[in-house]
Amino acid sequence: VFWLDTERTFSPQRLLELLTAQAGLDGEDCHDHALEALEHIRCRTCGTLQELQGAVQEIADCASRRERLPSLLIIDSIASAARHQEDIRRRQADLNKIASCIKGIVSSSCSQTRVAGVTEAISTICPAVLVTNQVSGDPSGASAGYKVALGHMWHHAVNWRLTLSHESGGYSALHGPRACYPDRPPIRTLVVEKSPCCGPQAIPFFVTSEGLQEVH
For 163-179, what is each residue's pLDDT tens digit? Predict the structure, then answer.
């Protein structure tokens, strides 16, 4: 896993907590197994879009040389890096370059080549890419009063869009008044807004020490 941290919120302690809980489900030596998994995560801090683009380009260069790639690339978050670029035209151009570079990494690593009449995969790993973003208010009232940050270009750049929401106050749209559930932590909702193979749906969940727990 390659983690590009623009928020400076990367927490090895929290990851170790999650990995330990996951290892416990498998009935293995939790701590040693979690530490071993944590060693496979690499974090790099990027403060600007230019630094972020440089890091992504390095991975793209590895893909072009058919070198081993991470199974998962996380960018947390694209909006934080873009916030430092005041020139809107330059910001959109940089975002477009980053999006194109990410798609190039995935497409090149998953493409195939024909060697001596036998089709072989260039790489055994087709990396998944997870990019966090933020939302901004939508005065038009569409999309529940919010819209994806960073404009139309980034809005259409993704294949999947998952929106996380937190229902404040004493009422839950999914479960009614909060007074009915005094022992439950605040309910959050994961909404599938865009997907190539899944229709729109909302999944309520809690955040626990072991990770996400779906509300049944």
Answer: 988 865 444 444 444 44
